[in-house]
# Entry
Amino acid sequence: MKKDNSLILTAEGYLALEEELNELKSVRRPEIIQAIKDARAQGDLSENADYDAARAEQAQIEAKIKELEYRLEHSEIAKSVSAGTICVGSTVTVIDEDEDEDTYKIVGSVEADSFNNKISNESPLGQALIGHKENDLVTVAAPNGEYTLKVLKVC
# Structure
């Protein structure tokens, strides 16, 4: 069950965050440290644009590392409820009243990406779909009014 301050992630989302963190720590951090050393070797730091840029980039990388470490520490990997029931991690194909068919992957809010049809479990559509099965009619309470979808497929 979700803790109050935990983030829900799919297993793929958790691995992606781990990979990004590893890349920052093992590749980007050493690169920026070397860039700072090289800029220091140029002499006067008071007017050294390379040094200032490297320090600014270092601050951004360190902030991103802290953010990713927090997310990973406070995340919970979503578990499937049962086969055929929509939950976080499910890929769902639905059809609307106009016969338009769409496929969505239900993910935690951290992974949501509407351009790639990854919708949050906390969104109106995600909330409405959770717990339903194939052939269910689902009413979605959206900000611009309610609409109904039929669940065609759950993977």
